[in-house]
Amino acid sequence: MQYFLLKTEPETFSFDDLVSKGKEHWDGVRNYQARNFIQSMQPGDLCLIYHSGKEKAVVGIAAVDSLPYPDPTSPDDPRWLCVDVIPVKPIAVFSLEQIKNHIDLQDIMLLKQSRLSVMPLSKKAFEILSGGV
DNA sequence: GCCAACGTTGGC
DNA sequence: GCCAACGTTGGC
Predict the structure, then answer these.
(1) Nearest protein residue to nucleotide B8, judged by CA and C1' positions
(2) CA angle, A38 then A40 then A44, to 5°
(3) What confidence tier does A24 reach under pLDDT thresholds 50, 70, 90?
(4) Which nucleotides of B are covered by protein (CB under 7 A)?
(5) Model confidence, pTM
């Protein structure tokens, strides 16, 4: 079981949109580092959904529901991958501000590489962010 | 609206 | 292979 954080602009695609749709392919990632993380995903891995822009907070849990497969939004370019994700449940909002202030979250990639859109999370970081601990 | 951090592109 | 120019992202 692995844990990830997926960033999205809620104006474009929010966690609520994922709940409404029931399932979505997490496509459009055009960054090699992020692509490599997608490549390592397995069905059942859990992802925290982070809203960038105005909200700047983790808002929900989703689950990987497929193996990585070629991104349908780049049919002529085999480099890019996506996975299907399904909503698991919304969580209490955990803001960027709280992340910055949490002693055990200082090492997460979100704070070090603010532009990376897909990143792994440690189990501990996932549990803190999702309110599990 | 601005700026920092990055990634990409293209000329050399 | 280097580097300047440019585009994008995301926080402030």
Answers:
(1) A31
(2) 90
(3) very high
(4) 5-8
(5) 0.93
Cβ neighbour number for residue A86 with a 10 Å cutoff: 16
Q: Do A60 and A89 touch, CB atoms closer than 8 A?
A: yes
Say if residues A98 and A87 touch (Cβ distance below 8 Å): no
- Alpha-carbon gap, residue A123 to A1, rounded angstroms: 9
A51 touches strand C (CB under 7 A): no
Are A46 and A63 contacting, i.e. CB atoms less than 8 angstroms apart? Answer: yes
pLDDT tens column, A27-66? 999 999 999 999 999 999 999 999 999 999 999 999 999 9
In the block, residue with structure tokens 């803001």: A95
